[in-house]
Amino acid sequence: DAGVIQSPRHEVTEMGQEVTLRCKPISGHNSLFWYRQTMMRGLELLIYFNNNVPIDDSGMPEDRFSAKMPNASFSTLKIQPSEPRDSAVYFCASSLAGGLTGELFFGEGSRLTVL
Amino acid sequence: DAKTTQPPSMDCAEGRAANLPCNHSTISGNEYVYWYRQIHSQGPQYIIHGLKNNETNEMASLIITEDRKSSTLILPHATLRDTAVYYCIVRGHQTGANNLFFGTGTRLTVIP
């Protein structure tokens, strides 16, 4: 079975550029989560969706970050403009039953480096 | 959600049982204990969860004390591939509160 698929796996960009990270959740899952991981702050929840609707975006650092889920099989996390402090690994995860059971399935992550 | 406390690191000899402790003294009655692990450069992986009874699956066993203020994750026969950061998370099963908060975890190193 295909797991959560994220792209790109690695991205290096220059400060000020727009970055778009993509996620395809597991088919049939109705919750999707975006996390960010850095050495300093560990794993942080940025935003999560239930049935394509954003439920809690309180973890989104600032207006430069935006996330969309236009349908059940696709989500994007966009950073515009990017800054060096955005360098991190960004993980997407999906789950069944609105995440009620707490069993999340994570993708391999997108490692972002902003120069 | 209740906070958890875990030792920052542990070592375990290959083939021996790895016992990873977690304190969650402020856990409330409807909160579950979850364990995830993260192998280097990979996304976190669900291991097991429980409410008050001990649980076992193909990966591990979860022992929760009777007062539910602490728990232990047991990997019965640790292998080198079990080297990872292990996260203990306490979370309620509430509609609309579906997120998981990861702490700093325990870095387990399995030694040959």
Question: What would you say this structure looks like, in words?
Answer:
The complex is a heterodimer of chains A (115) and B (112). Chain A is an all-beta fold. Helix content of chain A is 0%, strand content 54%. In chain A, the strands form two sheets. In chain A, strands 2, 4, 5, 6, 9, 10 and 11 form a seven-stranded mixed β-sheet that branches. In chain A, a hairpin with a 2-residue loop joins strand 5 and strand 6. Chain A is globular and about 40 Å long. The termini of chain A are far apart. With 112 residues, chain B is an all-beta fold. Helices cover 0% and strands 46% of the residues of chain B. In chain B, the strands form two sheets. Chain B has a five-stranded mixed β-sheet, with no helix packed on it. Chain B has a four-stranded antiparallel β-sheet with strand order 2-7-6-5, with no helix packed on it. The model of chain B has no long low-confidence stretch (mean pLDDT 91). At the A-B interface, strand 4, strand 5, strand 9 and strand 10 of A face strand 4 of B.
β-strand amount of chain B: over 45%
Order of neighbouring strands in the sheet with most strands of chain B:
1-9-8-3-4
Oligomer: heterodimer
Series of secondary-structure elements of chain B, N-terminal to C-terminal: EEEEEEEEE
Poorly predicted runs of chain B = none
Q: Quote the average pLDDT of chain B.
A: 91
- Class based on secondary structure composition and strand pairing of chain A: mainly beta
> If interface size is counted as residues with C-beta under 8 Å from the partner's C-beta, which chains form the largest one?
A-B, 26 and 22 residues
CA radius of gyration of chain A: 13 Å
What best-fitting shape of chain B do the alpha-carbon axes yield?
Answer: globular
Q: What is the β-strand count of chain A?
A: 11
Mean of the pLDDT scores of chain A?
93
Helix content percent band of chain B: under 10%
